[in-house]
Specification:
Length: 123
């Protein structure tokens, strides 16, 4: 008798489950459809965010390259200016040395002339 009651109870539970599944089938279909739509929107949003991130990374890389290029240009200009300044200083120093040597030579000649004039043939 217990087996009959257990069997009837089992059949009743299975029937109720099947009836609920049949009624709930439309809801599951709608839920799955909504879930697919939400997943599609999430993928689109992820793609858009990825695209924006790549664009931003490209822009940052481009700006970094431009800043590097400008930095190199400034360094080159600074080095060029330093070379020109050193070259000009070297030319000025060389000219000053030449002028002082020339002045010494001229003073020596003048001194020799004065000595020849004052001492005559003795010198």
């Amino acid at each position: 008798m217990t087996a009959k009651i257990g069997g009837v109870l089992l059949v009743a539970v299975l029937a109720a489950g099947c009836a609920f599944a049949y009624v709930n089938e439309d809801c599951d279909w709608r839920d799955r459809s909504e879930a697919r739509e939400m997943a599609r929107e999430a993928r689109e949003n992820a793609r858009e965010i990825g695209r924006q991130a790549r664009d931003q990374a490209r822009q940052h890389a481009r700006l970094a390259r431009e800043m590097e290029r400008e930095s190199r240009e400034v360094q080159r200009e600074t080095a060029r200016t330093a070379r020109e300044s050193a070259r000009e200083a070297a030319h000025e120093l060389r000219d000053a040395i030449r002028e002082s040597v020339r002045a010494e030579r001229e003073a020596l000649r003048e001194m020799r002339r004065d000595l020849r004039r004052d001492w005559g043939p003795v010198y």
